[in-house]
């Protein structure tokens, strides 16, 4: 929960241990920047240790912070490693099983990683140059989608250090304006991709063998998103709803 308005409560963290039925207050930050509260934007957890949680926070635009707990929220450390502090836009992040945080930051989706919970960041030089929409972890593999300006899906097999394109607009079987959302199935090794189109039906595709050295075929599932969501202008509303398994 977050607020950038002084008339509203400061950003808070709440915890549920029963699938969201009940919630317990964990902490809030009273740190201000130029009269504004910081926002809590992303919560990511260690895949092998539920007690290690990182929260990416900032005052829009910029001024990046990472709040970290290693004891399930009993205490928190605020790390203020500087990286693209002046850029506006999204903050999206995942945590790898070695504790590395990999994040896309700014409207262009500049990709960086931190091995010390946000005290310092390493810029990879990778970006989407236009819009970035989502980053997901599939075991030791990472996927991210955005536009450059053509829609693409990138993959990293070295904990976010380097990236390669595995799906682009030319590989799709229908006109696509944006790749909006990603979801990975560990049972089938499929990466599901929700698309947005200004010309044809918005649908879901599946990339087979997504984490293998050579990815498999891209399958059109013919799952009609237009039938579920109202059409929106420009980037539409499909990706804003997200995709989950």
Q: Would you give an account of this structure?
A:
2% of the residues lie in helices and 42% in strands. The relative contact order is 0.09. The protein has a domain of 127 residues: 6 Propeller (Neuraminidase), CATH 2.120.10. A hairpin with an 8-residue loop joins strand 1 and strand 2. It has a 4-stranded antiparallel sheet with strand order 5-6-7-8, with no helix packed on it. A 4-stranded antiparallel sheet has the order 9-10-11-12, with no helix packed on it. The chain has a 4-stranded antiparallel sheet with strand order 13-14-15-16, with no helix packed on it. It is mainly β and 245 residues long. The longest helix has 4 residues.
Assigned CATH architecture of one domain: 6 Propeller
The overall pLDDT average reads 80
- Describe the biggest sheet? 4 strands, antiparallel
Lateral strand order in the biggest sheet? 5-6-7-8
| Overall strand count | 20
Low-confidence stretches: 233-241
**Main CATH class of one domain:** Mainly Beta
Number of helices: 1
Distance between the termini: 24 Å
Shape: globular
CATH topology of one domain: Neuraminidase
Please report which band the strand proportion falls in: under 5%, 5-15%, 15-25%, 25-35%, 35-45% or over 45%: 35-45%
Order of helices and strands: EEEEEEEEEEEEEEEEEEEEH
Radius of gyration: 18 Å
Helix vs. strand class: mainly beta
What percent of the residues sit in helical stretches (DSSP H or I)? Answer: under 10%
Organism: marine sediment metagenome
Protein name: Photosynthesis system II assembly factor Ycf48/Hcf136-like domain-containing protein
InterPro entries: WD40/YVTN_repeat-like_dom_sf (IPR015943)
